[in-house]
Amino acid sequence: MSLLLSVLVAVSFPQEVNVDLLVERLGHEDPDARDKAEKRLLEIGETARQGVLLASYSSNVELRTRASRILAAWDLVAVRERSLGPAWKVTLAEGEYGLGDLQRVLTAFVPVPLEMPATLVNSRVRLGKADGTPVWRFLDQLCEAHGGLAIPLDRPQSAFSLVAGKPSRAPTCYAGPFRIWIDKLTLEARHPYGQEWKGARMVLAVAWQPNVHPIGRDYLSDDFDFKITEITDEKGALIKDQPTSDPEGEGFTHDRTWESCWRRSQDFAYPKAEVRRLGRIKGNIKLAFPSTVRMVEFSNPSIAVGKKKTFGSSTVALSSYQRTEAGVLVELQFSRSEDKEKGIGLLSRWSNSSIKLRGKDGSAAVLEVRSRFTSSGSGNEGARVSGFFPLKAEVESLSFPFVEDHFEHEIPFEFTDVELP
Q1: 305-363: per-residue pLDDT in tens?
Q2: Which of 42, 11, 15, 13 is nearest to 26 (CA)?
Q3: Which has the least CB within 10 A, 64, 222, 273, 296?
Q4: Could you report the per-residue pLDDT of 214-228, keeping only the tens digit for each?
Q5: 107, 210 contact by CB (below 8 A)
Q6: Residue 48 burial by CB count (10 A; 0-12/13-18/19+): exposed, middle or buried?
């Protein structure tokens, strides 16, 4: 074999990485060698799991510690990918498309339906080239190109949706499966407690793809929400004393009108009279997503009254079950030892609409909540939910998913050249 051919073969077929050697180096006496081996194994990923898993049981403390750390990092990556979903992207050639055709074409890139008014599906629109364009950005561009379409806030949970209307002109940015925009910006003058206050109020909004489901939308604390970190004028000078809280003590407000959109207002200092544009608005949004989800299931619930299921520091009990002519009445009790470090409360850990009663004939019914009571104190949280299942069949089980643990995900945003009202 010639020298040139030997080089080409070597380039085309690189030697396989020796995972066993890298794992062994996790316990090397040289710290630099240990660091390099750990970094390389993290890059290799799941294909090296078996060797790293064996090392996590080693009697060598350094080897065991680093191996465990690598496994934890891989697990976190897997959880995030599963919970946040893929960042769907669209690739299309430049040209003219029928809106009805786009609905079919996009399924190759976005595996959920795109809904739009039936009166518009025969419309045609000319689009520029999309080359790996994030789906939210693509939909915004589609609306702008058509001129008669807009993205509604109340999209279906399992689909993207477009409605008839003018596209939004609000400053918008995109981060993976998230779309963030300035929904409203006002300059205000108020007189709380007899003292004049001048300031600006901004309403920020975030929407997410149909395969992404933040938890505890109605019950998240202020730890998981919008935070503005910097506002500058058009010359780049910081607008001082921002962000500020509402002087009337109202703080931040949520708009929970839409299931798939979250909005929140925040006040900041009143810009000087000569400032007509904001150069930059930076900040981040912190949301919570499930990392460990357990299925609560009471088989044969008619004889399971009083039984408890324990998940970490949380307990779920079926406290009442009663058959009626129209269906089934039940009461569930939840309790949890308060842990401020856990970030989300008991009510964020399940959804009423996910509590189902299944019949032995394959039928099922969702809980219709009749009453709910919550309590907290002495280091504990509690909740009692009573409701009705319109199910007449013989019952097989009562079940629903319960979030045992979660992780936080921070989404950065930045808007530039924002015009003041």
Answers
A1: 999 999 888 999 999 999 999 999 999 999 988 765 566 888 888 888 899 999 999 99
A2: 42
A3: 273
A4: 886 555 555 567 888
A5: no
A6: buried
Query: 308 is written with which tokens?
Result: 């408890």
Tokens standing for 154? Answer: 């109340």
Structure tokens at 288: 């919570």
Residues 302, 324: Cα–Cα separation, whole Å: 12
Closest CA to 68 of 46, 51, 53, 47: 53
Helix, strand or coil, per DSSP, at residue 140: helix
Q: What is the dihedral of CA 73, 75, 79, 80, to 10 degrees?
A: 20
Structure token pair of residue 162: 């477009």
**At 153, is the secondary structure helix, strand, or coil?**
coil
Distance CA 135, CA 116 (A): 16
Question: Global pTM?
Answer: 0.76
Torsion of CA 193, 195, 196, 200, to 10 degrees: -60
How many C-alpha atoms does 203 have within 13 Å on its Cβ side?
A: 11
Cβ neighbours around 138 below 10 Å, total:
24
Both tokens of 137, joined, read 């950005």
**Span 98-127, average pLDDT:** 94
Q: Length of the chain in residues, anyone? A: 421
Picking from 310, 293, 261, 260, the residue whose alpha carbon sits closest to that of residue 406 is: 293
Are 25 and 37 in contact, with CB atoms under 8 Å apart? yes
Torsion from C-alpha of 128, 134, 139, 142, nearest 10 degrees: 0
pLDDT value of position 264: 85
How many whole angstroms separate alpha carbon 372 and alpha carbon 394? 26
CA atoms within 13 A on the CB side of 6: 3
Tokens of 192: 């709380």
The H or E element spanning position 398 is strand 395-419
Q: Which residues of 277-304 are buried (b: 16+ CB within 10 A; e: fewer)?
A: ebbbbebbbbbbbbbebbebebeebeeb
